[in-house]
Amino acid sequence: MARSNERGITPQGEDFSAWYNELVLRAELADRGPARGTIIIRPYGYRIWELIEEELDRRIKQTGHLNAYFPLLIPESHLRKEAEHVGGFAPELAVVTHGGGKELDEPLVVRPTSETVVGEAFARWIDSYRDLPMLINQWANVVRWELRPRLFLRTTEFLWQEGHTAHASEKEALAEAMTAVGFYEEIARDICAIPVVIGEKTASERFAGAQRTFALEALVRDGRALQAATSHYLGTNFARAFDMTFTNESGVLEHCFTTSWGMSTRMIGAIIMTHGDDKGLILPPRVAPFQVVIVPIGRDKEIDSVMTAARELNDSLRSSRVRVHLDERTQLSPGFKFNEWELRGVPLRIELGPRDLSASVATFVDRLTGEKEQVPIKDAASEIASRLELFQGALYDRAQSFRDEHTSVVDTWDDFVTAVGQGFASALLCDDVGCELRIKDLTTATPRVIPFDGLSENGPCISCGRPSTYPVRILFARAY
User: What pTM was computed for the model?
Assistant: First the structure.
């Protein structure tokens, strides 16, 4: 049985899954909802989502997309119009059969995703090439019935954004799908400090109803992969299902080419598992609800002058647009507060006590390194921005080093089995789906992506030994 440390969480090395579940609850990111598999996102966790949302929404709007909202309830017949799509989602659907005290004439599906309801609307809104491209995004919740729920990673209901676009040509639609990939790469790399591998899914791993699926894969600290976002080129599949057509410049009627793409609150789980340690969360400054916490230290009469200085510093940081929190709880010991804010992942702690005041300094404590440094109080506010940037960069570099150290190029089955037990295995594969299934059955690993920047090579398939058919090595891993 795993043992908890003084912070009440199991060390990563003893049981990573227990560490994660306990940390989400102890750090007050989320709680379990009353219905099985549902999540209550608490204010601290929701603020992380808001900061991600602000960054992503800005990028979406800068490229001409408009936000809209589509219904939560979708007629079951809509989903059945695209056979592959409904087949892919059938095990995860939640269906409403009664409403207003009586059985419904047609069951309503609680949206698992919105391609069908959007497709029906686009078909009514698009007549001519002049109506294209149509670039729509929505921020919404979706419901997918999860057999093995885990907070943020897989919950019955979760939050996300989903982009839906229609275009006059395949070339434009593919370019749009890659534009979305660009959004997500920037969010992962620049905002969440997560290095991702970008590439295309194999045919068996594609989104149901897509012609091509592109994905971003992260490697978290237990050596498993986590899909951070996806973007799908849908071709004309949904356009044909919903008769989404336009008259081109020559007066000929054509079907639209469509895309869909999304990032969800799963990204919060990625942040937790990519950066956290045995002390708790380590949050990238750009998504940290509190970038800095000030902890006043002192007793009796000493605390009054310390608190006055702490409030002045707090006001100074706020005016510099730093997300700062002043911990004024006098009933708790400094040690308790230090542990709590380390658990909650605040990047920088400022300790301020009588000795600090007498020397006109504040003590800075770095959450990542644990290093302490005394900084003149007069310089504290001006120092913060550069220190937070250094913290953000150091966190990314640490995650990238971990990923690189846990990525192995393999050519034998034994090496492959070892590699997927530790991280990414870069291997050659043929296009026989049976090989993917054999690998999954024997190792639980799946092909995560065909990397855009993958190693170009030919040779024997890692599973069957026949010549590989993909032009580059594919990344395999066990995944969440």
Answer: 0.95
Helices 413-420 and 433-443 pack at an angle, to 10 degrees, of 60
Question: Which range of residues forms the domain containing residue 166?
Answer: 16-275
Question: Which pLDDT score, from 0 to 100, does residue 6 have?
Answer: 62
pLDDT (0 to 100) of residue 92: 86
Does residue 423 sit in the same domain as residue 312? no
Q: What is the DSSP string of 147-213?
A: SS-BTTTB-SEEEEEEEEEEESSHHHHHHHHHHHHHHHHHIIIIIS----EEEE--GGGS-TT-SEE
* Residue 426 and residue 373 in one domain: no
Q: How many CB atoms lie within 10 A of CB 261?
A: 27
Number of structural domains in the chain: 3
| Cβ proximity of 338 and 349 under 8 Å | yes
Q: What is the mean pLDDT of each run of 10 residues along the chain (480 residues)?
A: 69 97 98 96 98 98 98 90 68 91 95 94 98 98 92 97 98 98 98 98 92 98 97 96 96 98 98 98 98 93 91 95 96 95 98 95 97 95 95 98 98 98 97 95 97 91 96 96
**Whether residues 224 and 333 fall in one domain:** no
pLDDT of residue 386: 95
Query: Can you give the pLDDT at residue 85?
Result: 63
Spatial distance between the Cα atoms of 184 and 195, rounded to a whole number of angstroms: 11
Please report whether residue 321 resides in a domain.
Answer: yes
CATH of the domain at 254: 3.30.930.10
Helix (H, G, I), strand (E, B) or coil at 78: helix
Nearest to 323 by CA among 285, 355, 270: 285
- Domain assignment present for 5: no
Sheet holding 257-264, edge to edge: 66-67, 134-143, 157-167, 257-264, 225-235, 212-219, 197-200, 446-451, 474-477, 424-427, 407-409
